[in-house]
Design a protein that fits this description.
- There is one protein chain.
- The strands form two sheets. Strands 2, 4, 5, 6, 9, 10 and 11 form a seven-stranded mixed beta sheet that branches. The chain has a four-stranded antiparallel beta sheet with strand order 1-3-8-7, with no helix packed on it.
- The chain is about 5% helix and about 50% strand.
- The protein has one helix and eleven strands.
- The protein is mainly β.
Length: about 120
């Protein structure tokens, strides 16, 4: 059973940077490559929103609010997906969740990691 383990959240000042990591534990490479990996975020009282996705052939997509500031990438050898976040703003404050979607396997979510951007 694939598990997603996130790390890298924390407190950063306005304009700062953070890199989130999501490791797919208990996963063999062929299973990891079957997933479209993504990052979502959620703030209290709001729906979870899509931030970025990346396919196994490294095709990416981003929410308009993060284009030009965030970069999603994946390292198949480590079965890990990253979210590099630059020029962070207070409105980026949220719990960030890693997601894995596949037409073959069931959808997976990580436990979430808090990102807080101070003024």
């Amino acid at each position: 059973q694939v598990q997603l383990v996130e790390s890298g959240g924390g407190l950063v000042q306005n304009g700062g940077s953070l890199r989130l990591s999501c490791a797919a534990s208990r996963s063999i490479l062929s299973v990891f490559n079957a997933y479209v990996m993504g990052w979502y975020r959620q703030t209290p009282g709001k729906q979870r929103e899509l931030v970025a996705t990346i396919t196994s052939d490294r095709s990416t997509s981003y929410a308009d609010s993060v284009k030009g500031r965030f970069t999603i990438s994946r390292d198949s050898s480590k079965k890990t997906v990253y979210l590099q976040m630059n020029d962070l703003k207070p409105e980026d404050t949220a719990v960030y969740y890693c997601n894995a979607r596949s037409s073959i396997y069931s959808e997976k979510w990580g436990q979430g990691t808090q990102v807080t951007v101070s003024n």
